[in-house]
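Final report, closing paragraph on structural work. Over the funding period we assembled a curated collection of sequence-structure pairs, and we close with a single example.
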Amino acid sequence: MTLTTRPRGTNDIGPGQIELWHKLEEKIRQVTSAYGYQELRTPIFEHTELFQRGIGEATDIVEKEMYTFLDKGKRSLTLRPEGTAPVVRAFVEGKLGAGSLPVKLYYYGPMFRYERPQAGRYRQFTQFGFEVFGSQDPLLDVEAIMLPLELYKSCGLSGFEVQINTIGCPACRPSYRQELVEYFEPQVDKLCASCRDRLHRNPMRLLDCKVESCQEVLSGAPQITRHLCEECSEHFAQVVDYLDALGVDYKLNHRLVRGFDYYTKTVFEVTSSELGAQNAIGAGGRYDGLVEELGGKPTPAVGFAVGVERLLLALQGQDKLKAEAAGPHAYLIHFGGSTKRRAAEVAYFLRSQGLWAELDYLDRSIKAQMKAANRLSSKYAMIFGEEELGRNRVILRNMRDGHEQEMDLQELEQLAKIIGECGQ
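Its predicted structure, as stored:
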């Protein structure tokens, strides 16, 4: 370890990359605004019990991946590994359900999981997600699928697939869990260590196992369909009906259960052909019992989360969401002394008008300054010559076509308007 090496599983996002992030963030705000969502920002760390109870103690995240530590008061805190539990905590603590329902919230920010780094997966990663509280309407399940699809399409992404399933509710799952145990027990020696450990604690989690040695056993596992209660069966039928009515292509995946224990009824996942075996670019589902589990009043809810790095990887694989190279509106070239002082005055005025203005801080030659303006792709060069300044004027050069004109420095607002129009 050295002071100049970043920790494994983290990433620096600098010039040349950050522009793509900004563009995607802009798309996110546009889509969430169209659907009526408001942003919520939660702390980066929470009490550890929030995730233990919310996500489930038998999940990979809680058992293996959380960054947990004791603070100076000996309280157990955890860097948030996902966004839903903190949003639910904020919903309950802030009494956000006291007003009109449903409540629509979205979040965007860093999450932390100690897992093996790979393409698009980091130990610190960025997640965008949204949650809807206060209604059991199956149409909200569909909206939670439609919103990310609108985001992907607005970015130009293609080749993605929607997979859906229902995992029932606490009333109808026990009989299905028992059937799974009875199916897996005779074949327990063929299962991986994690699946053997979870068989009696949470047998449904076995369906989500990605270990190759388990795949043959999982292929014959019973489906939940005949165990669904009337409410869950009708709910899922309406979800499918809405998807069909809205022309959404989807695939039924009876082994889709998601990695969190809080899900009920509908679960869904979106995959991309650009990402290989670990191909998910977003997932979500309904979690009608989580608000009550975390201390609130019984409140139905549904949500979706998108891994931003993985989405960007898929977009870059298709050469989508390009960010145009930006450059200054003007590069102010001076000869030092009084010309530098006047250039600085004009630069600060242009910046106050929201324009990007650069000037030389290294006292380089005029030739070197012009090269710098070209290297930065500046729209204009403003040349502060001593003779021109004696007449309170400046030379304005269009860097695209080389056209030059003298401008009166007493008309800075007009000068700013010309420069600004060129940048549009």
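The radius of gyration is 28 Å. The mean pLDDT is 92. We thank the funder for supporting this effort.
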